[in-house]
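This protein record is not my work; I was only asked to verify it. Would you go through it and say whether the fold makes sense for this chain? Here is the record exactly as it was handed to me.
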Amino acid sequence: MTREYCLESALLPEGWTPDTLVRVSDEGMITMVQANGDEPVPSIGASVERVRGVVVPGMPNAHSHAFQRAMAGATEYRLSARDSFWTWRQAMYALANRIEPAALTVVATQLFIEMLKAGYTSVAEFHYVHRRLDGTSYVGDNAIWDAVTEAATSAGIGLTFLPTLYQTGDFGGEPLRREQARFELQTDEFLRAVEARVRSERRGGARALRTGAAFHSLRAVPLDTLREASLRLRDFDTELPLHIHVAEQLREVEVCLGETGRRPIELLLDSGLLNSHWCLIHATHATPAELQGIAAQAATVCVSISTEANLGDGFFDTNRYLQADGRLCIGSDSQATVSPAEELRWLEYQQRLKRKRRGVLANRRELHVGTRLWRDAALHGAQAIGQDVGAIAVGRRADWLVLDSAHPAMAGCAADAALDHLVFAGASAAIRDVMVAGRWVVKDYRHAAEDSTAAHFATTMNELTIPVYTG
């Protein structure tokens, strides 16, 4: 049944607005927004739910590896002076070759509940574990894929599932290593599986479920294969979200240059494939010209400052990219931190430390740093995951956060500073209610399944016996 909500204070595309009436269809889509002062709209006769507090768009999480939640905190000690992404990767492989569908369902459900309570209302799951522990294919439905979908449904989070093509161990067509065997998919196998999921979703009309596709990296997918697969994917869905890791580490850039004579982002730009449905993950070591090129194609870049810092990747040049009108979104990636506020805070703080001044990422159109970062990341995250979310507007899905005005973190907060408090002053703790597709999934700070899921998660973690980090 269609429902109506009166939002005490809300961030609309045109700005902060009090006493806004919003109508939401049974499918969870916003069908009417009547801002305070607009001409009255006839009521549908249903009771209107008063939503007290500050309502803002939920944040899309544009890049997640759910299984890595099981290793968060387990690699934070030094083995040698040469510890890096490449040594951390060995611990990741050990976990990837231990986790099975039942455990992944529990781990991902716990993670998705944590995301909802932190302010993420949808997630793009970049999923490259495809096979059984022995490297053979699952018979019938892919149980390790279905584990992620089941977890998202149980938690109530929106999901863009990104089956990920992974075929080589490095540039130059190096064969996969033994520890990468679970990741392998042949191109035709990959395309058939993606197309089958897309067709199934079209028949089922799922409110908050979308399938896209990903290419792990140019290390793992040769450019000719990437070109062939992406064009064939476009044949059955011209708007399919396509994601790829690129230029995360300097070694990756250097090896790519040695093998091809060009940098990885150069290769993608020169391919002519990039458009607004592509999302480049990290792009940490992009040149100014590459950032301009990405922006010119209206593609998105997803950064995950918490993971990039955790792995020692380097600094993304956020200020330069935004000045080029680049479209930037955020993700939790390795789950070192599950907090959109922290990702955005450190986007700004990195720039402050680099430039030795404050308010770097605000602009003339939006002087509040928190508002500018949250609004833009929500909109561009929606673009990246291919879902109609990211704003409180007609035609968008009703994915909202409600900040409790009575919480100490919001004390004395002016209406237009709410997102400054959320990003910079610890007001993540004030996220009282969360709505996804018109359904309250967190109410009064609690998710209905959080206690039972936490118990299952503790048992699962003990059974997984996460391998010792050996570098």
User: Anything to note?
Assistant: The mean pLDDT is 94.
